[in-house]
Amino acid sequence: MSYRSVPRILGLFKAETMPGLAWIPHFTSVINWTLRLGLGLLNQVKAINTRWLAIIDHSIDIGTKKVLVVLRVPVDVLANKGAAIQLQDCECIGLKVCEQVNGESIALDLAAIFSQAGAPAAIIKDGDYTLAKGRLGLLATAFGTAVLLGWTLLGGLDVLNTALRDAVQPRFGDMAYQLSLLAAFALLGGLLDLPFDLYGTFRVEQQFGFNRTTPMLYAVDLVKSLAVGVVIGLPLAALILWIMRATGSWWWLWAWAAWAGFNLLIMVLYPTVIAPLFNKFSPLADDALVARVQALMQRCGFQAKGLFVMDGSRRSAHGNAYFTGLGAAKRVVFFDTLLAKLSPGEVEAVLAHELGHFKHRHVQKRIVMMFGASLAGLALLGWLAGQTGFYTGLGVSPNLGAPNDALALLLFGLVVPVFGFFVSPVMAMLSRRHEFEADAYASAQASAADLSSALLKLHEDNAATLTPDPLYVRFYYSHPPASERLAALAPRAA
Ligand SMILES: [Zn+2]
User: Fold this and answer.
1) By C-alpha distance, which of 373, 362, 411 is closest to 391?
2) What is the pLDDT of residue 175?
């Protein structure tokens, strides 16, 4: 930092440009954490109240049509009546079509349906899993609040900054000091989050039979992530810090360009370099499925570089499928856990859903929004970084003999999620709308009935509650609840 900046910062100290505005982040913080804890509690209560619901999905033949029926019944009614249960004891949540079927023909099948072992058990597990995850989420939220307060108002970041500045800057210079501050903060943050991740993986996921990660694999993953963070994160941080110094008052525009370029680079590097560090990707070997999938892609006018199977079963029993890459380098990736559970028709329907996201340009829309938001954020930071109140209001004294850029980045990173949370219902709503659009596309290009049954299997596999709290859904659900998606697919599946 040049000595010319010292009077500038001293001047800011005197000017106290925004003393009255310092309360904004704290006030927002209080509202934010109250809202998050409240939403979490709401969903917990809802999960407790509805954990006795059972879901039964079953295909029945009515004349020439095969119909998927999704019913839910209170578990105690099922226990009392057993196979003698009647249609009026059930609520149809899945397919509207079952209302049009005469009650008798379904009642005849009910005995057979309910005698299927496992179906009611699955949904009780869903309720318990939702509760256990929710409890951990509430704890993590409360802990996160304490950590944020510790960093800002209680002076944690100030202490860390002073210690590193005095120890590193005189000997190794401004850049080394700033990078050491960013690295130390990231390490400490990671260490503080580690107990929650460990508990989530080895207790919650383990308890419900989803975890496949061994402690050894977990440790290796941790070391690899750290290495990737150092190799990618440090040069990027150094570049941004250099831009902040070198490019004057428009630094935020240059930093944004660097950030955007970095993100595009990661989109290319992730599938080819980073993901293979953690998982094995082998070409899809099932010829019949390959032919089926290629026919679908041709029908949809879609080009991809390859079809891959990923060994997701190494870490978790949850299944998934996704696209990665940009332009013509796109790849289709299926989790082995997904292929193990779904029939070829269901795999095709799931892929058609993913193709729907591409046809509707959902990915591009998301990238444009992300870039727009980061430009606005950096412009705001460009202004905030020069305001003394931004530092002092958050419990940190700005450096006098060293640059404040790393500090500004850290404080901004701490505060943005507090404000960003209020935008999350808009983003989640957009995402849920995209899911419906992709479902509609999939049912036009593949079988809607197959997509329905795939959704049910995945739903069971992911053990999400069937009856989340509606307000909680608005804030947190990027995908609509399974029952809503099934209901939207019902007219097409009939
Ligand atoms: Zn989707």
Assistant:
1) 411
2) 94
